[in-house]
Amino acid sequence: MTCQDCEFALGCEQSSDAIAEHLRACPACRQLTDDLLANAEAFESMSAEEMPRVPVKVGRPVLPAAIGAFAIAAVYRSMGIKTSIDVPEGQKIVVGKSSVPGGDDALILVLSVKIVK
Amino acid sequence: VATEELALSILTRTNPRDGDFERIMSHHERMVVSTAYRLLGRMDGARDASQEVFLRLFKHLDRIHGDPKAWLYRVTVNVCNDHLRRRVPVMLPDERQADPSPDASRTLELDDRKRLLMEGLAMLSKRERAALVLRDIEGLSTREVAAILDIEEVTVRSQISVARVKLAKYVRNRK
Questions:
Q1: How far apart are CA A91 and CA A81, in angstroms?
Q2: Would the pTM count as exceeding 0.90?
Q3: Secondary structure percentages of chain B, helix, strand, coil, to 5
Q4: B173 contacts in A (CB within 8 Å)?
Q5: pLDDT, tens digit only, all 175 positions of chain B
Q6: A6 to chain B nearest CA, in Å?
Q7: Cα distance from B56 to chain A (closest Cα, Å)?
Q8: Which of A51, A61, B101, B136 has most Cβ atoms within 10 angstroms of its Cβ?
């Protein structure tokens, strides 16, 4: 067995007589075994680390209730679109586009209206 | 952390499952953030990616039936790959506080190794990194990883083996 074969087998968590024999004769692959075990312990520790919350929430009051839309709002920056529009029922209207300050992103607001009463 | 409010997306829904969304998000938030952090190497990027994942979840909630875990992992990997394509990947791990431990030197050694592993993850190919993060940090089975990444199990095993050896050598050379 070559070191390359042994490395691949160790990476696959395989064990065999041939691997054991190679390890007895090869200090570099024995070192790799120890390193892989230490890394596995570190990965396990990483999997238990605490993570911060994501600032995403579902909210309804972003638009007037009469519009009947639901919105996702992320805590980030203030921005908005101010314009007067006529919206025929059932038709989608692009209300406007607003650039996000300090970035390449933009908010594009599309509305459609359904009269329920 | 930004503090003001931005409407990222306005989505009209005829039959919103807001309760489902909140339930799924609260159960899987840590999973998504953690995966994104390991794939991107930075917490600010991970937060942005996680927001995008949950926006997609909200948008496609009606199409998701049963356990959304695999869907969320797949979308997280895709969103992170998009982020890495759009931006020059800078995988400099955030400074993290060491966990309190009676054995300070062992904790420092473990933290040092974790820091080096985060650096080393940046050296892997995107496919190797995704496979390794899902298998070794998220603890998924080879079959689950293969399904999420839409590749054969034998390919996953090969990618993970190569990635583990690369990382072991990277950490060894840096210590």
A1: 19
A2: no
A3: 70, 5, 25
A4: none
A5: 233 333 344 343 444 455 778 888 888 999 999 999 999 998 888 988 998 898 888 888 888 888 899 999 999 999 999 988 876 545 555 555 445 555 666 677 888 899 999 999 999 999 999 999 999 999 999 999 999 999 999 999 999 999 999 999 999 998 7
A6: 11
A7: 11
A8: B136
